[in-house]
């Protein structure tokens, strides 16, 4: 917001007495920057003018001591480095503030009353005593500065305005005019034109007040006093009168003044009646109430948790908007003081005022600031104005001078919003940023976007759709000295600012805050639980509901989440429809009226109905009733079978006709409002208006979908495990009933996850069958939507080909308006812990395996040597000649889409239908082999960036229990020794280099800028091949062995993870790796100690190996007894000893201790000699060996 202009005032004095007089006037001067200057002698106006020009002051005020200690006071102002107004007085009488019995209040506002002064004298004094006050009724003035010119004398009095008189409170000056000079009227008018934006003071001259206009926006700090948090006293039953008497007696004994009143509240969170009458006390000493304990009081409850919550909720301030402040007093520095929150009222929402945005680029070394660059942008009249790209670049040897320089820049710029990228929170605690909105682009992007590293380079590509135009590194090291690149800093701050604007962070946060009614600065931090908390607090306050207390809850309380149906894995080339429930959990809350006010009754009702249904089922089984399977199965029959008689009467929901509780009502209002905004959005063409409406509907969607999550989050104030459990239970019931309903009419449900379900229509997956598949599913969709009032299901998409691997992992070829596209969910190429090269290869394999030959004549021709017949082809509109990655896929993919502008006709497909099938397609398998072989040839030529692996630190690096087993943690700890500190939620980017034999992978993690040799074998075995294996696992003709041969891998057996051996030292009892000296006390560790520990370890693992329980596959019976059949069902018991892990442990001990301790090698040799795991009975493979040699 615009800050009011300040004027430099030169204050000149020559003696101590003169300084005391000057100080009396200092406290009355507002909005000035005083420049003190002590001089020995000053007698002429010209010298005063030169001094003011040199110090760049537009106003001057001098106090000098003449002969016989006579005080002379001079005031004046300059324009174009020349004095235009000058008046000199001689002091006749002076009374300081200490002379008067009642001193004036500090930081108060006053009016300037001028009587008998000329217009030029009034203008000069008006400029000298300038304030920020605007049009305020004179009846509310409490203090007045009275200037009176009686001709011979001139007086200045500071007075308190009473009802019938003025009371002097000091200081009081009586002076006579010695000399004056005023420039010509023409020059004076020029000076007024140059300073037209300067604020002026309300002046009453000749019994009329001059009302001046202030700038439309200015930053003001409002101090609110007497913010008293009411305390509620809950009485014992029928004892509120006794409690009131006890409370009044207690307050009188402690001499505490307070207002006691009765109030009625609804209670959903405490262990007493749902409607309770309480005593409400507001007092200025709430701490004394801790000792108030009487039999008539059941409980004390603070109505609000703090002063901020008190003001926001009680004054109904819902986000940034227009706030009316009444009965305020303004201080000398422009701050407003309000006596109580009652003077604050919320008028409504409005657009942002012009904001000053500061963008920062900061460089740290060992947590010390070594470089910064800033940019300041000011927005005026809803237009972004870059005022010359104001940048500051500094470099300093010490951190403190640089920090102080940055502080000075912030204080001078006075920003409203500060934007930065991944700066430690601790740093900003040292900056003067109180009341400033902070925005971390890294935090915003990582919480709202999909990406790998969320670096500026990646954000440029994903947000701005362009490459990051860097001018090099901001900081570099040359000959041991740090060098800073100013151009790089400018490019960085420009990029950060552009990303900030492109993400609409401020505007979206404003919409969220206006809906929820919390603080904008907190919404910018994406504090979802707190945001939803304020939304509910506002609603509860209006409904007179007691707020829940803030309490710490253990995070180990858990509940069952959404239902995930067991997938029917396979490669489907038939039409699969993905049906999705719109906002399932918010809809469930409304459908079943799940609320804090009704959860107890709902749970009790559910328990009663469960018992009744069990009894009814037993009676039905006893009577041997007929099954509906004997009748023709229709959607109506299936629906009635899934619904009980009660649901059939109420339309599927037990509580659909009851009055909605508070939480369902809130969600319903949000859903209705969002639907209305979307309707308006569809008919709006203006770009700016569409942007605002889209942000608003997005904010409503985020809030509706996040409320459920806060119910199950222990850190949330409205945490309610019963409600969260019931919501997910009802969600599981809805998905289960949908599955049963679909299967009862012959539809095949192949997968379902929380709020969606996949149905295999068993219709060939071609474009011309899409409408037919949709029509086949329409009765089911209508049937489900008819059952509920608020729950609605829709077809999310039609899938032509589906590679369903496991739960939450599948690849799909989806029908789209502009052609089909390949999407993946949960697959490895979407994960950041696989390098870019691995993602590109696995993505290309998936796209090729799922290629839509119906729409790709070029691929069809490359496989079969011919294209689509010209008379049986149809054109596709708006089809690009060469596409990048399909929508919804990774932006980093280098695989080029193989689509062409023509698609095959229905007749051509039906005549050659087998040619359009991908599973079991020999030509397609050969094509994939060829592509993999081509990729293998260029792997060693790929740039180092293609091998970078990204991993997130889920906690500080030193808080990991086993940091040596995780490459990114091990690297973070190593970087800390070099002064590079990584914190929680940071993304660590590393590569794996070659190392010594059997050296742990975690020890071979490097930054790409370090010197190392890349371990290509590791990347092939652990990064490239595993994702390919998972994709081709369901393909009939693509062989894992063939892929292994392409990449030169002879055996790809999964090796157990080799763990680091740790021993507890006998001296310090500290765990450490193998060493002949204690790392803590340096005392030697004997060989006998390690021999004993190895024997103990191997014997324990041998015992564990032979006590592995046997398990029955049919009835899950387990036993360690030496039997081979299950005593329950007589099925064969399965015994899966973990021989591989035991053998790996032996090998690990042998590699670590064997070369150093001979006894250990001898012990392990006995185990290896008798290990059946290391023997291979070739006779079992005679048939395979014979077949192999016969083919040769």
Automatic annotation (TrEMBL):
Domain (Brix): residue spans on this chain: 10-178
Domain of life where this protein originates: Eukaryota
Reaction(s) this enzyme catalyzes, per UniProt: DNA(n) + a 2'-deoxyribonucleoside 5'-triphosphate = DNA(n+1) + diphosphate
GO biological process: lagging strand elongation; leading strand elongation; mitotic DNA replication initiation; rRNA processing
Keyword Lipid biosynthesis: no
Keyword terms of this UniProt record: DNA replication, DNA-binding, DNA-directed DNA polymerase, Nucleotidyltransferase, Transferase
An annotated Gene Ontology molecular function: chromatin binding
Protein's UniProt keywords contain Iron-sulfur: no
Cellular component annotations (GO), alphabetically ordered: alpha DNA polymerase:primase complex
Enzyme Commission (EC) number: 2.7.7.7
Family: Belongs to the DNA polymerase type-B family.
Protein name listed in UniProt: DNA polymerase
Species of the source: Menopon gallinae (poultry shaft louse)
């Amino acid at each position: 917001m615009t800050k009011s202009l300040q004027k430099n005032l030169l204050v000149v004095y020559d003696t101590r007495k003169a300084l005391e007089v000057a100080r009396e006037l200092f406290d009355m001067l507002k909005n000035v920057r005083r420049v003190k200057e002590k001089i020995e002698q000053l007698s002429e106006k010209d010298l005063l003018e030169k001094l003011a020009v040199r110090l760049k002051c537009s106003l001057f005020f001098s106090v000098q001591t003449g002969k016989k200690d006579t005080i002379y006071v001079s005031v004046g102002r300059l324009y174009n480095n020349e004095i235009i107004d000058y008046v000199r007085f001689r002091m006749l009488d002076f009374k300081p503030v200490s002379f008067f019995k009642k001193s004036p209040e500090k930081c108060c506002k006053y009016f300037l009353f001028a009587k008998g002064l000329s217009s030029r004298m009034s203008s000069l004094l008006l400029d000298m005593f300038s304030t920020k006050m605007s049009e305020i009724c004179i009846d509310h003035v409490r203090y007045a500065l009275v200037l009176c010119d009686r001709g011979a004398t001139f007086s200045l009095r500071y007075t308190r305005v009473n009802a019938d008189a003025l009371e002097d409170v000091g200081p009081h000056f009586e002076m006579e005019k010695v000399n004056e000079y005023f420039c010509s009227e023409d020059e004076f008018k020029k000076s007024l034109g140059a300073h037209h934006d300067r604020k002026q003071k309300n002046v009453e001259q000749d019994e009329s007040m001059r009302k001046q206009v202030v700038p439309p926006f200015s930053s003001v700090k409002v101090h609110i006093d007497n913010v008293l948090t009411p305390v509620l006293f809950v009485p014992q039953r029928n004892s509120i009168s006794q409690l009131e008497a006890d409370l009044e007696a207690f307050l009188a004994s402690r001499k505490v003044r307070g207002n006691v009143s009765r109030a009625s509240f609804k209670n959903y969170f405490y262990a007493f009646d749902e409607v309770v009458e309480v005593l409400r006390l507001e007092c200025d000493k709430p701490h004394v109430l801790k000792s108030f304990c009487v039999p008539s009081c059941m409980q004390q409850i603070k109505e609000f948790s703090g002063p901020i919550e008190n003001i926001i909720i009680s004054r109904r301030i819902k986000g940034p908007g227009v706030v009316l402040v009444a009965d305020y007093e303004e201080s000398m520095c422009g701050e407003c003081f309000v006596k109580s929150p009652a003077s604050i009222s919320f008028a409504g929402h409005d657009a942002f005022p012009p904001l000053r945005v500061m963008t920062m680029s900061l460089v740290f070394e060992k947590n010390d600031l070594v470089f910064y660059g800033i940019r300041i942008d000011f927005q005026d009249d809803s237009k972004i104005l870059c005022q010359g790209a104001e940048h500051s670049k500094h470099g300093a040897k010490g951190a403190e001078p640089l920090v102080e320089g940055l502080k000075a820049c912030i204080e001078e710029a006075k920003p409203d919003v500060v934007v930065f990228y991944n700066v430690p929170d601790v740093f900003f605690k040292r900056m003067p940023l109180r009341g400033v909105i902070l925005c971390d682009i890294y935090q915003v992007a990582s919480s709202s976007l999909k990406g790998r590293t969320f670096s500026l380079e990646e954000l440029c590509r994903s947000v701005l759709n362009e490459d990051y135009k860097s001018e090099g590194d901001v900081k570099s090291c040359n000959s041991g000295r740090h060098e800073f690149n100013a151009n790089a800093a400018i490019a960085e701050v420009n990029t950060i600012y552009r990303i900030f604007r492109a993400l609409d962070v401020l505007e979206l946060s404003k919409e969220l805050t206006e809906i929820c009614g919390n603080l904008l600065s907190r919404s910018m931090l994406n504090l979802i639980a707190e945001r939803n908390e304020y939304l509910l607090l506002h609603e509860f306050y209006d409904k007179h509901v007691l707020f829940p207390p803030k309490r710490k809850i253990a995070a180990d309380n858990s509940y069952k989440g959404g239902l995930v149906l067991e997938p029917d894995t396979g490669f489907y080339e038939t039409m699969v429809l993905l049906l999705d429930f719109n906002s399932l959990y918010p809809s469930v809350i409304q459908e079943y009226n799940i609320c804090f006010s009704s959860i107890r009754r709902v749970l009790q009702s559910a328990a009663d109905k469960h018992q009744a249904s069990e009894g009814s089922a037993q009676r039905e089984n006893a009577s041997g009733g007929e099954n509906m399977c004997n009748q023709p199965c229709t959607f109506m029959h299936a629906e009635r079978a899934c619904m009980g008689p009660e649901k059939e009467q109420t339309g599927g929901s037990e509580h659909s006709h009851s009055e909605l509780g508070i939480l369902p009502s809130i969600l319903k209002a949000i859903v209705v409002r969002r639907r209305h905004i979307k309707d308006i959005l569809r008919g709006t063409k203006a770009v700016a208006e569409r942007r605002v409406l889209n942000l608003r509907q997005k904010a409503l969607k985020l809030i509706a979908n996040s409320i459920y999550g806060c119910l199950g989050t222990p850190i949330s104030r409205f945490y309610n495990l019963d409600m969260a459990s019931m919501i997910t239970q009802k969600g599981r019931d809805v998905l289960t009933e949908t599955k049963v309903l679909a299967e009862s009419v012959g539809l095949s449900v192949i997968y379902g996850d929380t709020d969606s379900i996949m149905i295999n229509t068993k219709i060939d997956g071609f474009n011309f069958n899409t409408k037919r598949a949709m029509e086949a599913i329409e009765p089911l969709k209508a049937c489900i939507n008819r059952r509920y009032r608020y729950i609605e299901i829709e077809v999310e998409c039609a899938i032509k080909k589906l590679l369903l691997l496991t739960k939450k992992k599948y690849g799909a070829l989806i029908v789209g308006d502009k052609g089909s596209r390949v999407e993946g969910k949960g697959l490895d190429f979407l994960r950041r812990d696989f390098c870019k090269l691995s993602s590109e290869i696995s993505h290309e394999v998936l796209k090729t395996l799922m290629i839509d030959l119906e729409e790709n004549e070029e691929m069809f021709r490359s496989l079969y040597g011919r294209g689509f017949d010209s008379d049986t082809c149809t054109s596709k509109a708006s089809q690009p000649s060469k596409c990048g990655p399909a929508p919804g896929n990774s932006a980093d993919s280098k695989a080029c889409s193989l689509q062409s502008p023509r698609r095959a006709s229905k007749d051509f497909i039906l005549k050659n239908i087998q040619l359009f099938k991908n599973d079991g397609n020999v030509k397609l398998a050969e094509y994939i082999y060829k592509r993999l072989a081509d990729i293998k040839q260029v792997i060693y030529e790929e740039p180092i960036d293609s091998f970078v692996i990204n991993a997130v630190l889920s906690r500080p690096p030193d808080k990991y229990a086993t940091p040596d087993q995780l490459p990114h943690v091990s690297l973070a700890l190593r970087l800390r020794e070099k002064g590079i500190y990584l914190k929680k939620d940071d993304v660590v980017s590393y590569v794996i280099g070659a190392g010594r034999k059997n050296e742990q992978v975690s020890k071979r993690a490097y930054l790409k800028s370090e010197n190392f040799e890349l371990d290509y074998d590791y990347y092939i075995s652990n990064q490239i091949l595993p994702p390919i294996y998972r994709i081709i696992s369901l393909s009939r003709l693509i062989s894992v062995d063939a892929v292994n041969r392409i990449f030169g891998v002879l055996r790809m057996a999964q090796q157990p993870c080799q763990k680091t051996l740790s021993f507890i030292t006998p001296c310090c009892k500290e765990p450490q790796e193998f060493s002949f000296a204690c790392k803590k006390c340096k005392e030697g560790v004997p060989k006998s100690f390690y021999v004993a520990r190895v024997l103990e370890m191997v014997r324990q693992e041998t015992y564990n190996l032979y006590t592995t329980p046997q398990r029955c596959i049919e009835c899950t019976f387990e036993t360690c007894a030496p039997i081979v059949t299950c005593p329950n069902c007589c099925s064969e018991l399965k015994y899966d000893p973990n021989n591989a892990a035991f053998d790996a442990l032996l090998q690990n001990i042998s590699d670590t201790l064997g070369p150093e301790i001979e006894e250990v090698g001898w012990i392990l040799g006995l185990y290896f000699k008798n290990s059946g795991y290391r023997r291979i009975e070739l006779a079992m493979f005679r048939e395979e060996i014979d077949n192999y040699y016969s083919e040769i």
